[in-house]
Amino acid sequence: MGTLDGKVIIITGGGTGLGRSMAYRLAEEGADIVVAARRIPPLEETAAGVRKLGRKALVVSTDVTDSTQCNNLIAKTLAEMGRIDVLINNAGIVRGERPRPVWELTDQDWHTGIDVNLSGGFYCSRAVTKYFVDNKRGNIIMVASGEGFRGVRNNLMYTVAKAGVVNFTRTMALTLAEHNIRVNCVVPGFVDTFEYQPEEYQKAVAPMRAVRTSTRLFIPVGHQGKPDDIGYLTLFLCSDASDYITAGIFISDGGGLAGGFATTGYAPLVSLKEGLA
Amino acid sequence: MTARAFALKDKIAIVAGDNKFWTRPLVAALAAAGADIAVIAKNSSKLTEAVEAARKAGRKAIAIPTEVTSSPQVKKAVEQVIGEYGRIDILVNAADVPFFQPFVDIKATEWDKVMDYNFNSVMNFCRSTGKQMLVQKKGRIINLISGLAERGIANGTAYCVSMGSVLQLTKALAQEWALQGVTVNAIGTGWFSESGNALDETLARYIPEKRYGKPEEIGSLVVYLASDITDFTTGQFMFVDGGLMAHA
């Protein structure tokens, strides 16, 4: 018996990274899982993992920047799984191929950054909302980022979109509360998703990985997060035990935002010699 | 039912300072997740009720009646817990005394009393318990406070300052102990009622979920934050408020 027995949960961006962790952690507690993304092979890998845990899994090829495909994701889930209990809008990309100076950003760069990280969540949420209202119950989980709370050099669309996700959460929650639909947001800090990436990606980033993990220097707890830190957070928010929690913003970032530690690696320290005298 | 990943099997939890209605539901949730319990608070029948709730869940429990505003008394009580159980894994601070008066009318003694109950008692527990957690290189501190730690309200100066103080204590301690395995987080509560009262119209417009929280609804978040899987979550303020803080 699990705390999510019988629930059907959709995870966009469910093929890799945080999405894969969510799929496994939720399936362990009894949920059937629908994973959606553009690339099919990673989705199939996640689905196989879910089935190994004894749960049903459905793969739906979806580009969340296309609202028709988001509508299809919801329709197909209802047709094949019969119900939807939670939608997790996890799809997103941290940055494009390489950062460009502001004056060289194209309209296309801007729209892609905003669409993948913000509009996709809106399209999927819009598509499921009517079903949730008719069902008199629903649960949406958004995924923002610590970068949605601070400015970050050269990462314009991502920080703007993720800040948007935070207030999308609040307004959707307030708007839908009377229909018994909860909307919450999880906020990961620096999470090393290496273990849940496809093999070719792992090969490509392996040489850079030592550099990446050095970001722990300015994470107060001294290490990067694990995908499961976020996987388990969504488990808490998916369960009925969090029924009185909506419009919540749940940060798991090793203490970074609370301490005002900047993404530059600079961390202020005060002298212990200052006295009261 | 507790999700397997959030289990607190054989962990030692202190529930501290409450004289409202949090102790019994907190103890029930922690014990159901597998923790053994020590309740430290002003002497009242609530202590025995809480101990009974833990034992009903099959866990060990002790109650230590204590004047929580007294630093030496808190120190003694915490030492007694360590003597009894050998360690402390979880501290839940739940001190919350409401006090609302116009700022200019508040007597110095009243102000001090509010700060004593709502802030100094929490500080006493963090200090005594934190010492042990630093030795263990592991611990979970969860401060149950009000959303008014972040918002102002007329006639609420003393209360808001006391709650805001706990929030800043939470954030600064989280940084100070981040490398030593001790996480410090706060939970902000909205409007709760034990009796399941219906809301009047004003409150119904104010609380998005249009109902009071039930005290036991605090349990799942406390258990989540107390569990081993939250070692990347520290310095946070999370709300159980039916959506209130999103527009208030």
Write up what this structure looks like.
The complex is a heterodimer of chains A (277) and B (248). Chain A is of the alpha/beta class. Chain A has a single domain (8-259), classed as Rossmann fold (3-Layer(aba) Sandwich), CATH 3.40.50.720. Helices cover 44% and strands 14% of the residues of chain A. Chain A has a seven-stranded parallel β-sheet, sandwiched between helices. Chain A is globular, with a radius of gyration of 19 Å. The model of chain A has no long low-confidence stretch (mean pLDDT 91). With 248 residues, chain B is an alpha/beta fold.
From the structure above, extract its key features.
heterodimer, A: 277 residues, alpha/beta, Rossmann fold, B: 248 residues, seven-stranded parallel sheet, 7 strands
By CATH reckoning, the class of chain B would read Alpha Beta
CATH superfamily of chain B: NAD(P)-binding Rossmann-like Domain
Look up the CATH topology of chain A: Rossmann fold
- How many helix segments of chain B? 7
CATH topology of chain B: Rossmann fold
The radius of gyration over CA of chain B amounts to 17 Å
Give a count of the beta strands of chain A, DSSP E runs of length 2 or more. Answer: 7
Question: Which strands sit side by side, in order, in the main sheet of chain A?
Answer: 3-2-1-4-5-6-7
What gyration radius of chain A follows from the Cα positions, in whole Å? Answer: 19 Å
**Oligomer class:** heterodimer
Mind telling me the CATH superfamily name of chain A?
A: NAD(P)-binding Rossmann-like Domain
Overall structural class of chain B, as computed from helix and strand content, comes to alpha/beta
Strand arrangement, major sheet of chain B: 3-2-1-4-5-6-7
Major pleated sheet of chain B: 7 strands, parallel
Strand content of chain A: 5-15%
